[in-house]
Amino acid sequence: MGKQRILLISLVGFLIFGLLLGGKIVYQKRWIDVTILNQSQQIPGVVSAKTVKKNGHNEMDVLTNNMTNLRQSSLALKKLAGGLPIRYFDRNNNALKRLFDQMQFAFQEGIARGNYIEMAENVRTQAEKAGVQLELEIDNDAIYVILNQENAQLLEVIERHGQVNYLPTEKQ
Questions:
Q1: Which residue, among 40, 145, 143, 36, has the nearest Cα to 90 in the 3D structure?
Q2: Crossing angle for the helix pair 33-40 and 70-81, nearest 10 degrees?
Q3: Parallel, antiparallel, or unpaired: how do β-strands 57-64 and 46-54 relate?
């Protein structure tokens, strides 16, 4: 009689646990992910956004197309992400990636020295020499970089204080 009660109580406990876990998963997939997708599509240049789990950590992956105001879009996505780091997926090419890698010295020197005017002049000169259109914005938290070349676009947010709100951009 005592063993049957324990078995019944254990079974009911597992059933409740399963229902709660299932409810959480359904809530995440049906409500939160759909809300993020719908709200992200209202941001210019954003095709879609979703939360994913990579290497045991959650992040928001954002698929982009012809982004024009990376700073404004990033701030809107940051509110939407609710503390999750954001990773952009852009349409970069090898030439843009190589140019951005060369610009890293100027970006890091500008952050270390606090001389953003010289940094901006340096990266603009590099972009002009490569025949690439550069959009550069800065605020208290980050430097927002867009490199455009024909149909290719590279997006990158370089954080100034190491917050880890933005992860390295990947190619679509």
A1: 145
A2: 160
A3: antiparallel
Residue 14 lies in a domain: no
Least confident of 113-127, 140-154, 158-172: 158-172
18 is a domain residue: no
**Per-residue model confidence as pLDDT tens digits over 8-42:** 888 888 888 776 766 665 555 554 565 666 677 78
CA separation, residue 53 to residues 39, 46, 169 (Å): 20, 20, 16
**What is the torsional sign of CA 92, 82, 73, 102?**
negative
Q: Where are the alpha helices (DSSP H) in the chain?
A: 2-27, 33-40, 70-81, 94-113, 116-130
pLDDT of residue 143: 96
pLDDT digits (tens, 9 = 90+) for 48-86: 888 888 888 889 899 999 999 999 999 999 988 888 999
How crowded is residue 156: how many other Cβ atoms within 10 Å of its Cβ?
A: 23
Coil/strand/helix, residue 42 = coil
**Range of the structural domain that residue 146 is part of:** 41-171
Asked if residue 97 lies in contact with residue 122, where contact means CB atoms within 8 angstroms, the answer is no
The answer to whether residue 21 sits within a structural domain is no
Sign of torsion over alpha carbons 55, 164, 76, 169 = negative
For the chain, the domain total comes to 1
